[in-house]
Amino acid sequence: MDEAESNALLTLMITPGLGHGLIGRCIDRFGCAAATLSATTDQLKQIDGISSTKAAQVRRDLGRLADGTELAQERQWIERVNATLLTLEDPGYPKLLRLIPDPPRLLYVRGQLQDEDALALAVVGSRQCTHYGREQAERLSFQCAQAGLCIVSGGAYGIDAAAHRAALRAGGRTIVVVGSGLAEPYPDRHAELYDQIADGRGAVLSEFPMTTPPIPENFPRRNRVISGLSLGVLVVEAASRSGALITARLCVEEHGREVMAVPGRVDSPTSAGCHKIIREGWATLVTNAADILDALGDAGQLLKAGVSADAALVSTEVRDPPPLFTQNLSDSQRRIVEALDETRGVDQLAAATGLKVSVVQSDLTMLQIRGLVQRRGGRFARKR
Fold it and tell me: N or C terminus of the chain: which is more exposed, having fewer CB within 10 Å?
């Protein structure tokens, strides 16, 4: 992306009232971010989700931002915290995240992302965790990081922080996805932890402009990124209503990834959500790293066997994929590929193959990573 388009996209990011979804629709409609900056009020209100009133306000805000002062301030903050920007078009943009229905158009990154970070496990749970919950988060995150999984979480108190710290102790990699701007690290008491992670042990990510405060509405959006970066989500202690369960539901229903849960004491309210999703059948009960690797399917089996991740595993544009990723398909994956003689949705694939919807969703994720299947809207097609 050239400098003019990068500046235009960043300007849209700091425009009040324009989130990633609306920015994406504007770019689709007008062709690029730079063209969006000069769109008229009448043109803006033709975008789905932008009312006449909102269009007028956005036009006024774009006019106010035209002198570049606030853009320069945003750039200064980016330099101050030594962050970089990744757009959807950049080759370094996380491959798994690109596959979800609404990936962030722009990511702010402290630290470095690596290709092998696509072999990732999200670990989520209660901020007010018990000693048991912290112990299990640490144990499982440590084991999984040793096995080669990158541990992804939200940097919060409780389970999140325990997972990040365990990954560091194991000598593994970990990614923090924050619900604020990188200049406003939240919680601020974890600033030192974030510095340690960004200093060669992983990355701290945000989709929000640099000085965005940690307001409540940011966290559901943050949760979808945690899920989107990961092959699966592990829930360690969650009440019956919690942000961790929101992340888990996004993972299974919208991203087609695996959900796992750690059982707790039967009378513990902090484990009620884990027991609920296990009982309902959309989360796999796990008690050790081997269970987790089994639940992650092909990627987990590669790690379990001690096979290092090849770049082809995390590439969505494999030109000459090795046999492991084209020939060594499971029976269910082969049936899905064969059924994609035409573009189909998940339910249609389940009907055509006789597989459970959960199996189809999980296999579609792996087939996309392998570069054999591509998403087209809410449907899927065989890559030609």
Answer: C
Residue type at 137?
A: A
Between CA 277 and CA 370 the distance in angstroms is 29
Axis crossing angle, helix 3-13 with helix 20-30, rounded to the nearest 10: 140
Distances (CA, A) of 369 to 81, 172, 347, 363: 32, 22, 20, 10
Q: pLDDT for 130-188, tens place per residue?
A: 999 999 999 999 999 988 899 999 999 999 999 999 999 999 999 999 999 999 989 98
d(CA 212, CA 214): 7
The secondary structure of residue 14, as a DSSP letter, is T
* 77: nearest Cα among 217, 188, 216, 212: 212
Gyration radius (Cα) of the chain, Å: 21
- Report the C-alpha gap between 230 and 149 in whole angstroms: 10
Cα–Cα distance, 141 to 164 (Å, whole number): 8
Q: Which amino acid is at 168?
A: L
Q: What is the pTM of this model?
A: 0.80
User: In terms of Cα–Cα distance, which of 293, 373, 290 is closest to 338?
Assistant: 373
* Count of CB atoms situated within 10 Å of the CB of 57: 17
Q: Positive or negative CA dihedral for 301, 281, 372, 317?
A: negative
Whole-number Å distance between alpha carbons of 110 and 98: 19
What is residue 240's DSSP assignment?
S
pLDDT digits (tens, 9 = 90+) for 79-89: 999 999 999 88
Contact between 352 and 344 under an 8 Å Cβ cutoff? The reply is yes
117: phi then psi, degrees, rounded to nearest 5? -65, -10
Alpha carbons 251 and 258: distance in angstroms, whole number: 7
Largest CA distance in the chain: 60
